[in-house]
Every structure is written in structure tokens, then in C-alpha cells.
Fold each of these.
Amino acid sequence: MEENDVLVTVEGLSKKFCKDLKTSLWYGIKDLISNIQGNKNERLLRPKEFWAVKDISFELRRGECLGLIGHNGAGKSTLLKILNGLLMPDAGKVTIKGRVGALIELGAGFNPILSGRENIYNNGAVLGFTKQEINSKLEDIIDFAEIREFIDMPVQNYSSGMKVRLGFAVAAQMEPDVLIIDEVLAVGDLGFIMKCFKTIDNLLDNTAIIYVSHNMPTVSRLCDKIILMEKGQSLFQGNQVGKAIDMYYGSFVENESNIVFTNGSIELLTIDLLSSLKMNDNIHEIKWKDDLLLYFKFKLNLYIDIPIFRVLLYDKEQRPLAIFEPNYDENLLKNNNGFLEFTIKHEGIQLSKGIYSINVTAFKRNSNEPILRINNVLSFQIIHDEDHFQPFLLSSTFSTK
Amino acid sequence: MALETRIYQKENQLRIGKLLKDSLQDIYTSRFLSRQLAVRDISAQYRQSYLGILWAFIMPLTTAVMWIFLNSSGTIRLSATGVPYPVYAFSGTLIWSIITESINAPLSNTNAAKGLLTKLNFPKEALIISGIYKLLFNSAIKVLLLVVFVFVFGIGFHWSLLLFPFVLLGALVIGTALGLFITPLGMLYKDVGKLIRFGLTFLMYVTPVVYAIPKTGLMKTVMTYNPMTPIILTTRDFVTGQNPEHLSYFLIVVGCSIPLFVIGLVFYRLSIPIIVERSSA
């Protein structure tokens, strides 16, 4: 067997869907009839139809992992269903070599009344195992799922996490040539998710994987090819996974800051990133290792002590990354006739390339009671040549010892 | 080992031979799946019920009892049936229930597996085969009861009783073949399933289920040509050891049903992607 043989070839794949149920069913009847006659005509959109997948082409070799990303309804799952042979394309062609495994619905074929052990056989049969295969793998499956204690309990009493565990444990026994994964690992606790990724990592070398997820860190960790889909079409396609992820995030950037909480005693008038070189689409740009110099102007509506400001850095997925040292010393800032004007400086910022946003919270000095919280007061972009999915790129010096 | 290659594209290779070959191959490779699905459904069905197996013949039994009562009380006057009326009525309703169940089986099984169909690619023929297993299981119980009836009413053993299972198998094939054609339409429109159920109730009265074919009149013509008639009559004749008058018509119907079953399988195979597309669950 060749090491790098192409396992999946997709050429000009299109699929249309109907927006209206009644019409859709009627088209279904028509398709049933035209199907019998071997429909060879080019298929055009009929009224109320749209292209759910339009003109997608790619090739995938053994050992490669293709990430499919895009908004909800971009056509990712439809594409997967065509690849899995569930839907027939309306145009184009898919050629798949080898055994296809799909982690789309874990625990398919489970019957809630039956025990976990019985359902291993049901699920295994649906996935194409023989009875002997399941018999020989039964113990591995139970151990992998870590539910030996409950294996003879009806599956209806399992928690959703336990069902997913059992489903994945069965599916993990497949030795596919092509593996299709659709956002199934979201349930389950951290330990189990890590176990799943370990399994996928083990498969990675000998398998062509197609991975659909909204979780960009895992996409950039697993995938070496990517397609960004929008409205059924491929918006970006290639090996630059980082670039596609940036484009994906870019489509979500909200410039609207929103006041989550205020008691009215303090108001943000101005915020600026003084150290920024230029603006691009309302986003400040600074270079990696530049200084970050933030300027704030607040209005104090009541006579209050200088609040404590906690300024937080978030990444594109709204995960908190860092906090700037708050102004615990009350003499640092001065109330100037009801206005509060100050800057915060951080030298040589070492965040990796990407877009970040800032949240501001203010607290009463004596009671630590929040008086203001604003999300996304400012977004900025760090410019660097390299893509990293880790949030920080720390400057470092290598030297021989 | 050469890797199996699958090609998905718009054009169907509409070669009946190839489709049929694939279909039969899938039936063979999915034999464990079919069995497992049948075992799953049967054990789940009875695990959540105390009366369990009783439900399989409560319906035909009550229908039969009702007719036996109507007949014995003189409310209606039925023509002579040749065998004790309770046996006649009960064998009729029981065989009829097996036929209707087999007509409905492909649709109801496919409907129940909708969640699987829209998510996973597995040999769909397994649903049909597991449906036949389930029918065989349910029918076997009914047949046992029927045989008990035959002995209780003193009809006793006949050699033709041994042929009875084969005749019944023919009835299952006919029912399933019809069901296969209904399934794709029934998956799209709920009306189809309801219409079939409604139609079958009507059809029962033009089939000699609880009364014999009248000697004259319109009803005689309808009932004689009704293709359900030879199925019911021949099966019953074999059970009660009577001379099967409609045997040749029965053989024709079974003979037709085999190619019908084959075409039904191909039609089913072709239709599944369309059903999946239109009914994503």
C-alpha cells in the first residue's frame, strides 16, 4: 500500500435543499420518480431551493486531517453527510477509498430499555462489526468507557456523558481508513475528551480525517488542511490553517462594546490604544513586543473614592487570558473635578498573532462591590509573521551550554 | 489488500442487475446487524411489559370472538364454512393480522430507524431483514396458538399442517414486497401510512377472513379476484386439512410476489437517500 495515497477525492460537489417542507416533500416524490428513470440532466434550482453545498473540491491523503469550519448552517454537516454516503450529491463526484468511519452520532442504535452491554452489540452491529469482533473487543470497550460498574444497567439511566463515553468507546474500536468527525466530543468530562483526542492522535498517521468543529484550538491542533465554508461555498481553502481561523474569527468581530453592569456612579467617556500604529476595520494594530499603552477617561457622577480598575484581556473565543495589575494604591490616580483620566502601560506585549479584546470592570475600593463592567471596550490585533494557536509567543533565547 | 472504493455522484448507475447484486450482498454482510436489530426490538418490546407476548394475539382474538358471538347469537347469518366456525374465524383473523403486519413492517421499521438513517451509513436492507425476523417471531407465536385451536376443536393433525409454515412464508413475502413499495412514499407523507391502515380494514371485508365467499353476487366476483383471497384460503385449508381449492391462484400470487419483492428491494435502495434528504431528523 502506498504511504501517501489519496483516499478522498471530491470534485465540484453541490447539494441543494428546499426551504419549505411541503414543497420539499413534493420534490421528494418527483425525485423518487426521476431517480427510477436515472436522472442524468443537470440539476438547477427549483423554486424555494437553495444550494446548501456549492462547488466544493478537495483531495485528502492518508495521514492528513482536513478541518471544516464555518458558521452554523454553512453547509459543513451536509458536506459530511454526502461524504458519508447518506445524501446523494446534486452535482459533482465523491470518491472514497477504504473503510469509512463516522463519529457523527455516538451511540447510534442504542435502545434505552436495554443494558449497556446489550447496547454495545447493537451499536457495534450498526457500525459494521461482526459478533466475533465485538466479543473480542467487549472488555476493551467497557474499560475504555470506564463504566464497568453500570454496564448491566439500562442505558436510559445513564447520564448523557456516560452514553457518549460508551458510544465513543465502541466507535474507537473501528480501524477506518477515512474518519469523519462532527462535533461529537463536546459532552463528556475533560478526562474523557483528552482520551478521545489521544485516540484520534493515534489514528492520525494511518487515516485521512475530516474534522468539523467550532472549537478552533482543536482545529489548529489536529488539522493540516482547512476549508472555511460560508453559505455552502468555500471561502478559503488551503494549508494555512491559521489564516482560515483568523478569517473565521474576523467574521464574528463585534465592535460594539456592551455595558454589562453599572450602578450609574461612573461612566466611561473615552478609551484609546495610544501605542497603536494604525487602525484597520476599527481594530487597532500593534506589533508583537510593542508596548501596550491604554488611555481611559471616566466621568464620576457621584462623589466616590477612586475605584479599583480590573482590566482584562480576552481572546477571540472570549476566554480570559490576562489581567493588568489593578490600582490597589489609592494615591495612584486623582479625581479631577469629577473626571478621571489615566493610562495603563504594559511593556513589550508577547501575545501571539491574533485579535484580542479588553474588558473593564470597576470596583468600590472598600467593599469590592462592582460598580461598572463593560465588555469588549476595545479590540486590537497583534501583528506577527507566525501563526500560533497558543495565546502567548514568549521571546526566548536559545544558547548552547 | 485493495481498498474498497465508493463513488457517490448524481447519476445512478441504473442497472437493475448491479443494484440487485449490491442489495443482496448488503443483506449478506449485514446479517449480524439484521439479527441484532431484531433481537434488540423484540427484547425491548417484552422487557417493558407484563402481558408481553399476549398483545400479539389480543387483537385477532377479540375480532374473532366478536364474529363468533355475532354468528352464534344469530345476529348475522353466515354461509357454511366447512370447518367449525370458531376455527374458521380465528384462523382468518390470525392470518390476516400476519399479512397486515408484514405490509406495515417495512414502513414502520424504516420510520423507527429514522434517527439512524439520517446519521449513519449502514446497509439499509438490514432494516427489512430484521423486520422479517420480527414477523417470523411474532407469527410463530400466533401459529402455535392456532395449532392449539385446531386440536381443541377436534380437527386434528393433517399432513398439510407441515406445509403450513411454507405457505405462511409466502404470505410474509407478499406482504413485505407490498410494504417495500409503500415505504418511500410513506416516509415522505404521513397520509400514506394512515391510508394503508384504513384501506386494509376495508380490504378485510372483501377477503374471506371471517366469512366464506358468497355463492353469487358482486361480492363473489370481488372476493374471488382479490389476490388476498387465495392467501387466506390456502393457508387456512392447509391448517384445517381441507382441499386447497385456490392453490393455483395462490401459487401465481406467490410467484408474482418474488419478482415484486426483488424490484421492491431495488426501489427501496434507490429511495433511501431521498428519504434521508427530505426527513433529516
Amino acid sequence: MERGLRLPFFNFEYKLILFNRQMFKRFLTQKQSKDDYPPGDLVIWIFIYAELLVFGVLFLAYAFSRSNNLELFNESQKLVNQELGALNTLILITSSFFVVRAVSAIREGKVEQCGHWLLATMVMGSGFIVVKIFEFSEKFAAGISLSTNTFFTYYLSMTAFHFMHVVVGLIILGAIWWKNRRGGYNQEEYTGVETGASYWHMVDLVWIILFPLIYVIR
Amino acid sequence: MENSSPSEIKLKTYRWVRPCTIVWLVLIALTLSTLAVGKFELIDVMGGRPLVAFLLITTFIKGVMISDYFMGLKFVRRRWRIIPLIYLIIVCSLIWIAYNQN
């Protein structure tokens, strides 16, 4: 009987402490908890890391080839248009910012706003394409081609390879925009928007390294 | 006249200046600094190595900002965040080594 009187009190107190400790632990884990997986479809992240690896190899091939042809690379580099390279960097950074806003909008359930931000991203991406085509045509008009020298082989192949990624990114964003317009995404389901956005950021990340490497550093 | 308490004003200011907006502005500023180095041929004027280091460090910072804030890897488990981080460290370091071979 005595035990019966004591235990409920003890248990109550213990449960209270336990409850508080659990609450405290939950508070800590909530504060520190992070998502298990990055935003978007997991497959796109495997693709993104594979793409980064490919571009990484190209960057290093360029850098080490340059060390064997220093004069040739430095002289040839003077012929590339730094302003257009910088303009394209600003365009891609801004487009990446717009796609971040598109993801934020859809997470907040603002479907129409998400569409507008996606459209703005595509306009900026198209701007990149236009500038790049102008840059390429400028080089071809000057008689520069893949076989001109080692620098231009790298310059044209790396920028053209990146250009193709921008085109693919625009197609992906276009498909997402179309699906969003038809009500395919909402506050609960927006994995597609995050997947497309992640790909577009990868395109931006690659250009962030490509621009100083090819256009500026010598 | 609209009456807003200081906390409301603070909240409104916070909502207007999102972290991604600050990241975007920093990225723009760093890109313009990279262009300035190239345009004024500062590498030729001031000597190569310090400016190459500056350009590679700004590239690294820009890359980390994109992966952390734009890609959102800052808010997921470390294993996902660390891959682009290691990638940027390796690529920038090896470029630095390649540019200092001669």
C-alpha cells in the first residue's frame, strides 16, 4: 500500500522529467535536424555530380595544357571577349536567383508566381544563348575554329559543351513551366520544380569556374 | 498612416531582403571584381600569383555560395554538402598548382 502511494508520485515526477527531457531533446534535434536528401529527385544529384566530374576533368586538362604552352595560351586568351563572358556570368547568376525564387514560391503555394519566376529564368537563359551565339559567330567570322590552336580547341569545346547544357536546362525548365501552368505542381508536390532548379544551378556552378579560368586568369 | 510596431517593421524588412537576395548581390559583386581584374589587366600590372589566388578564392566562395544557398545543400545532411565542397577545393587547388608550375 505504501509502495502504491509512493510510486504514482514517483512515476509522475519521473514522467515529467522524462517529458521535459524528451521535449528538450526534440527541441535540440529540431534545431539541428537537416533533410536526409537534397531538394529534388535523387537521380538528378547523381547526374549533377557526374557532370561536375566531367567538367572538372576538362578544367584540369585545360590548366595543365596551358602550363606547357604558356605563350600560346596567353596570346590567344587576349582574343576572347571578357565583357561578354562577364555578361553571361551575370545572366546565369541572375537566372539562378530567379529559379530559387520559383522554388520558394511553389513551396509557399504561390503557383502563378512560380510560373512567372520560371519564365524569367528562361528569358535569362535565352539571353545567355543569344550572347553565346554572338560570341561564337564573332570568333568564326575572325577565322577561329577548333583547329586554330590548342587554346581555341579547349575554349570552343568547353564553352560549346556548357552551351549544350544550357539548352538542355532551358528545355527542362520549359517542361516544368508548362506542367506548372497546367496545375501539375502545388504546395504539397513540387519535386519536379526542385529537380529542374538543381540542374540549372549546376549549369551556373560550372560557368562560375569556367569564366575566370578561360577568360581572365593568365 | 499605417502604424507598425518595430517588430513588424523588422519582419517586413526581413521578408524583403531574403538570404538568397544577399547571396545574389554578393555573387554579382564578386563577378564584377573578376571582370575588373581581367579588364584592367591587373594580373600583368600587379604580378600574377596574388591575383590568380584572389580569382581562385573568389571562384571558390562563389561556388560554395551557389551549392549552399541556391542548391540548398546547407540544409541537408553533410554528406551531400561535402561533395561539391571537396570538388571545389580539389579543382581550385589543382588549377593553382598548374598555374604555378612555371
